[in-house]
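Can anyone check this?
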Amino acid sequence: MLSDFLSRFHVQRDHEPTVISLGQIWVDIMMDVKELPAAGEFINARHVSRSVSGSFRVLQAASKMGARTENASIMGTGHWATYIHEKMKRAHVVSTGQVNGTRDNGFRIVLNDGSAKTFIASHGAESMGDVRMFDHVTPREGDVVYISGTSLMNESAVGVNEFIKRPECSPDERTFKIVINPTNSLQLVSDQLLEHLVLARPIWSLNRQEARTLASRLAVHVDESSTLTVGGGFDESMFKLCEALGNALHSTVILRAGARGAWVSRKNRPVVHIEGFETKATHIRSAGPCHTGALCALLAEGWDIEDAVQIANAAASIAIAHNKHGIPTSASFEESVALAQTAVKETAQGRMLS
């Protein structure tokens, strides 16, 4: 049973807030191999599995946490699109985007040798679009719009750019939240689009590699000299990186670090570290989408950033420890709260005493 502290977060509204994704969805075909083949060599895969990937994993995680979810990106027509629609239906994700009647959704071949993954992508309908592709997206108060890193590249980028330029997306006018998880390939994102994203002041959710890539693209200098000393370390490095990006972006930055939790920078506030949860990994896929999906669901419910990150940390920890065919299994709200409840109660008690 949830505590009174948790139940007070449920906000009653005329409109039930929705997590709306502008990200791309495709299919992953993972092949477990002993080792990567040499050019011209023939090998057998030890195991083959397929799964819906891209922004679906964020929407699936948000839905598992109890949020209404909507895929607003382009879908194709064909075998892979049908498979994706079946999985979205099971996950209670509504698809409202345009339909490309001549192209199927794309797929990726993922070769997994147990230590690293190698990707071969074939893009499809999800990567196509124009300036009007998101005209049907009209977020209402309390909604959360999720933008993935892949949607910032190829033809879909023009649609994201057009959406983010709307007057209602400006920080002073916006009644909904925007959460963005950028890509490691930020060098492929246009200067204009990146500028518009920065000006929109979304919530940035990143891992360490993505954060360093963004810092490099924005020419943000991060002084990590003290972390190279005997007394320096990972936590201090993450703190400095989160602080530097927060100061440069003038927006909320969530810097994820697996079992170490996350560092959160908010405008005009000091950086805080939200502890994570120790867990044993059962796969090598990232639980980042599970964290981001849980975060979006809780923000749509009206949760404060730091409290939402704490539960998202728990959800990601559960996802790291559980998998189906190597794919992290999204956690429910109840499961996440059960893991984090002790820390939540301690936080609540500390606030009541302060």
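Reply from J.R.: I decoded it. Residues 1-5 have pLDDT under 50 and may be disordered.
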